[in-house]
Amino acid sequence: MRPLPLKGTDALARRALYREYRPELFSEVIGQDHITTILKNQVREGKLSHAYLFCGSRGTGKTTSAKILSRAVNCLSPKDGEPCGECTACRLIKSGSADVIEIDAASNNSVDNVRSLIEQAQFAPLELKYRVFIIDEVHMLSNAAFNALLKTLEEPPKHVLFILATTEPQKLPATIISRCQRFDFHRLTIAHIVTNLSAVLEKAGAGIEPNGLRLIARAADGGMRDALSLADQCLSYAGDRVTEQDVLDALGSVSSAVLEETARALLSGNAANAVHALDDVVRNGRDLGVFLGDLSKHFRALLLAKTCGDCKDLLDCTDDQMARYLKVAKEADEARILYSMEQILAVQSKLKLFPAPRIPIEAAFVRICRPADDTSFAALEARVALLESRPVTTLSSLPEGKATSPCTGEARHDDPAPPWDEPPMPEEPPMLDEPPEPAYEPEPEPVPDVPRTTPSSLPDGKATSPYTGEARRDDVSPEPTPTPAPVASGEAEAVWEAAKKKIMELNPMVFFYVKDTRGAALDGDTLTVEFPATQESSMNGMRAERNLKIAKDAIEAVRPRTSLVFRLAALLDKNEEKLKELFGSSLTIK
Description:
By secondary structure, the chain is an alpha/beta fold. It contains 25 helices and ten strands. Among the domains are: 153 residues, P-loop containing nucleotide triphosphate hydrolases (Rossmann fold, 3-Layer(aba) Sandwich), CATH 3.40.50; 133 residues, Zinc Finger, Delta Prime, domain 3, CATH 1.20.272; 83 residues, DnaA, N-terminal domain (GMP Synthetase, Chain A, domain 3, 2-Layer Sandwich). It has a five-stranded parallel β-sheet with strand order 2-3-4-1-5, with helices on one face. The N terminus is likely disordered.
């Protein structure tokens, strides 16, 4: 790598790119045409305001536009509203005129500072037509300072122009905003930043690969000054010819391939691959905070791709990158993407609290892949999505007729044995030692001849025992127990549907467990509720005491004194006939 030729005093005199190549004209300010057009028209027509308020995030051109406007209003021969840059006024301002005063409100925010400013505003300009006050970060002024500025800002002398700049306009009093013409600067797009970076680097005699420029533009987050500072950093690291890998090394970022690999592992529930991907990031010396930020942006792109389809305008990406987002999003479930992004953002916000940041990230990755222990609604949706994404294998599609579990995908140990040519013979019970035969057979004792009393001979038709003569209680048959009336086949479903509506009113989260269930049978006062075969986790969730109480309250409101029984539907109902053909009468499906 060939470093930039900076030696001796040249290295000390060199200025940062954002200072060296600051725009000198309104036409050079990128991405703010809605503002620069108005300002040029006002300068050209001489219809200036006495006060301007420039609002916007950092690095979007607020201070630059204020400086250009200060030259334009004082230029002796403006060209279509632009400063000529050649007249005496333009040269004086560029070299530092006493009539253009820049104030940092962050360090000059007291009422005394504002009073000093007001006193200066009363004097006529020394060299120019207008005395211009540029107050940067004006929201940092105190309330007393704002109050002192109000009258002068509303009716300043004719030779005074105020330009206020702020990144947080919501902190300004309404009385200040109402006295200014407000202009909101937009965040710059990646395309705008890449175009301007290429032009600046060409003037500087350096170059960065296109993919590297896009990485810098994404990291700048809409600020041109941030982008130029990052480009300066990359040039200092790799010289005047910078590759994409040089940019990744200088910024501490990871490539898009690493982000895609990590996202696929998390969305598929593969915790081992996700942890190994994190290990590669750590071994390569990448900043974990930057990695989590890039990963959260990647999941945002997947969520938008899943929701909106082709959305290059929202993501500000290339066609190739959009195609990759769409491919991954198509394979994933929206609930899984949302849950993963929420967990990543949660650990990202707390990363600085941990002395070893790798540990909470690994814990978050495992939690994303295995949301079984998380009882939040988002985790439940992620679990359902993960279960539904795994195919259920039938007996007929596996060798030797082994079925798999819908949750783990592993062979179940309680499946029926494979068919054989002949059914296996049952094992003979172990032989026991026969007891010795008695030497003699005892003769039975004679039974006394006791007259039997008939029921008719006793009062109330009661019979007596032939041995004791007492009345027997078991001779008269008890009254038959009435059997419950048969229940209509559709009543169980109707009762449970009404109960589900009541559960929805009581607790929507509990309704999430039972929304796909049905009333299978109603036997007297017992209602059997059947869960789909793939929702065993939902059935287990309903057995929790707090959830079961809500279900009991709902069924009590619909059909009093009715108890609930939960069961899981047979996993292979559709293949019952095929199973019977395969196993014959030895198979019983419950």
